[in-house]
Amino acid sequence: MLALNYSEFDNECGTDEAGRGCLAGPVTAAAVILPKTFNNIILNDSKQLSEKKRDLLKPIIELEAISFGVAHVFPNKIDEINILNASIHAMQLSIAKLNPKPEFIIVDGNRFKPYLDVPFETIIKGDGKYLNIAAASILAKTYRDAYMNSIHEEYPMYNWKRNKGYPTKEHRAAIKKYGPTKYHRLSFRLLPDQLKLDI
């Protein structure tokens, strides 16, 4: 069973991101403050849940959360500041949308930068330990998937509806055949060395 909070503060937010390892699309982060009374037996790290369960949990989290925020950071910014900084930036943008402002922040992973004067703790595999990080992981993943589904219509040959921008064989084959789009992260190695693109 996941714990509700890490700290003693009422308004503790959990934050997490999705899409860090993708070749295309944004890195998306969410921040969630849950009430002390929150309880949900299905909620877990988004990677442990089916798409159906994530879609079921999204409106429950949005309805029951004291506050939540979601933010995308797009490929041009990722290419400019690198994916680690873009992930932290996305988390901070999502936290900035919270009202009330959190009194404490717990972050999935091991890297973060101070946000205003709010104390924080980084927690490895935090999305499998704390409900507020798990809730943030669900929102980050479902909002990012929805975005990838929407741009799929523009470039169906990359099948983002299915691979969500991750480096699958199919996605890489499409990049090799059609080249990168405005949604691709050009600072990433889009193809393995043996499939070099002449850009």
UniProtKB/TrEMBL annotation:
Cofactor comment in the record? Manganese or magnesium. Binds 1 divalent metal ion per monomer in the absence of substrate. May bind a second metal ion after substrate binding.
Domain RNase H type-2, chain residue ranges per copy:
10-199
Q: Which cofactor does it need?
A: Mg(2+); Mn(2+)
Name a single GO biological process.
DNA replication, removal of RNA primer
InterPro entries membership: RNase_HII (IPR022898), RNase_HII/HIII (IPR001352), RNase_HII/HIII_dom (IPR024567), RNaseH-like_sf (IPR012337), RNaseH_sf (IPR036397)
Catalytic activity, as annotated: Endonucleolytic cleavage to 5'-phosphomonoester
Where does it reside? Cytoplasm
Residue intervals passing through the bilayer = none
Which UniProt keywords are given for this protein, alphabetically ordered? Cytoplasm, Endonuclease, Hydrolase, Manganese, Metal-binding, Nuclease
Statement: the UniProt record of this protein carries the keyword Lyase:
no
Keyword Amino-acid biosynthesis (UniProt): no
Q: What is its EC number?
A: 3.1.26.4
Q: Which residues bind a divalent metal cation?
A: 16-17, 108
Record-level Gene Ontology MF annotations: manganese ion binding; RNA binding; RNA-DNA hybrid ribonuclease activity
Q: Which family does it belong to?
A: Belongs to the RNase HII family.
> What is the recorded function of this protein according to its Swiss-Prot or TrEMBL entry?
Endonuclease that specifically degrades the RNA of RNA-DNA hybrids.
Q: What is this protein called?
A: Ribonuclease HII
Naturally occurring in which organism (per UniProt) = Formosa agariphila (strain DSM 15362 / KCTC 12365 / LMG 23005 / KMM 3901 / M-2Alg 35-1)
Classification from the root reads: Bacteria, Pseudomonadati, Bacteroidota, Flavobacteriia, Flavobacteriales
